[in-house]
Automatic annotation (TrEMBL):
Its EC number is 2.7.13.3. This is histidine kinase. GO terms for molecular function: phosphorelay sensor kinase activity; protein dimerization activity. It comes from Desulfocucumis palustris. It holds the Pfam family HATPase_c. It is an enzyme of class 2 (transferase). Keywords: Coiled coil, Kinase, Transferase, Two-component regulatory system. CDD domains: HATPase_UhpB-NarQ-NarX-like. Residues 30-64 form a coiled coil. SUPFAM superfamilies: ATPase domain of HSP90 chaperone/DNA topoisomerase II/histidine kinase (SSF55874). Residues 188-379 form the Histidine kinase domain. GO terms for cellular component: membrane.
Length: 379
């Protein structure tokens, strides 16, 4: 039978290993994103050069077209001095240059559109690259901290015997989160991007047949790209909302609450009292994840029509309560049912216990559910 110390050491090592795996995956994403960024950058440079060359060609042809029109006017005005062949040639020269000029201007317009879209894509790729590098830096800092503090980790966690399986739970949660992200990407952006590629190929073929139809197809293509971008942003927000890092817990909860209530279509109220200040990262992340899980349960199981969220920031603690008027349940039965995984209640309770906080659930079938959380704050 392994000792508690060895179990805790294994938990920490497994956690570090999982973080290292995630860090390598982030580095791979950053590497591929950098390759795509360089490819787009080179393509943009080529398109810009084509635009400049085409503008010069348009300007030169426009000058020749004006001279041809002047020549035609002169011939027409003095038709008695010129033969019919001269007049016909002057007219055909004007028409030829006019048609060529229209064709060049059309190509110039398409190249400008392509250039603008490449610049937009380049900015988005650069933004994604910056986020990947930032996330990799955070993971490296976490790994360094855990490695440096491994010698003292056993003594710190002996008092938390009930959380011996924390490492396994974290790994399981990571795998579940990866499955969810993979499913969301496959069902959303991946499908849209495949469709976008097909539609783009269709547009290229259509340009040779019907220019008017191309505009309609490009408009539809633009809408698909916007939808794909919206889906990607939602996935990124679910993984780690940037507003949580930038502004803190309360703004992140408020934004998630607004998006949730807009989608769920229920009567909801968010009440916050106290000082809207920043807390330790561990507290902000834990409370935000618990809040997400609460709302996820309401969406999946409660069938509620009313929701009330209260957050109270005091000098030495943060209190949060989430109440709904939904279907309710028997907390003892749900926590004991391994198949249901406790609606995520065990994971929520463990997050709060790690922070030495209090977590309680009050629920009655057909009468709604109330979840109360209290987390102490250090000076």
């Amino acid at each position: 039978m392994p000792s508690e110390a060895s179990i805790l050491d294994k938990v920490v090592k497994d956690t570090i290993s999982a973080i290292e795996t995630g860090k390598r995956q982030i580095y791979d994403i950053a590497e591929h994103t950098m390759a795509e960024y360089n490819r787009l950058k080179n393509e943009l440079a080529e398109v810009k050069k084509e635009v400049v060359d085409l503008i010069d060609e348009v300007d030169n042809l426009a000058l020749l077209e004006r001279k041809a029109r002047v020549r035609l006017a002169e011939v027409s005005k003095n038709f008695h001095l010129y033969t019919e062949a001269d007049i016909k040639k002057a007219y055909e020269d004007v028409q030829d240059k006019k048609l060529r000029l229209m064709d060049l201007k059309g190509r110039e317009k398409l190249l400008r559109y392509k250039r603008d879209n490449l610049e937009l894509s380049l900015r988005r790729i650069k933004d994604m690259l910056d986020k990947a590098e930032k996330l990799a830096s955070h993971l490296a800092a976490v790994t360094n901290y855990l490695n440096s503090d491994l010698a003292n980790i056993t003594s710190r966690f002996l008092e938390l015997e009930q959380l011996q399986n924390l490492g396994v739970n974290i790994i399981r949660a990571q795998e579940e989160e990866r499955r969810k992200v993979a499913r969301d990407i496959h069902d959303g952006p991946a499908q849209l991007l495949a469709n976008i590629v097909m539609r783009a190929e269709f547009c290229l073929k259509l340009m040779e047949i019907d220019h008017n139809k191309v505009k309609e197809e490009l408009t539809a293509l633009q809408q698909m790209v916007r939808q794909s971008l919206q889906d990607v942003r939602k996935i990124i927000f679910d993984l780690r909302p940037m507003v949580l890092d930038d502004l803190g817990l309360i703004p992140a909860i408020r934004r998630y609450f607004e998006e949730f209530t807009a989608e769920a279509g229920l009567t909801a109220e968010l009440v916050t009292t106290g000082d809207n200040r920043r807390f330790a990262t561990t507290i902000e992340v834990a409370l935000f994840r618990v809040f997400q899980e609460c709302l996820s349960n309401i969406r999946k199981h409660a069938a509620a029509t009313q929701l009330l969220v209260k957050i109270e920031v005091l000098h030495n603690k943060v209190n949060m309560s989430v109440k709904d008027n939904g279907a309710g349940f028997n907390p003892k039965n749900v926590m004991a049912d391994k198949k249901s995984e406790g609606y995520g209640l065990i994971g929520m309770r463990e997050r709060i216990q790690i922070l030495k906080g209090e977590f309680s659930v009050t629920s009655v079938p057909k009468k709604g559910t109330s979840i109360h959380i209290s987390v102490p704050l250090e000076d």
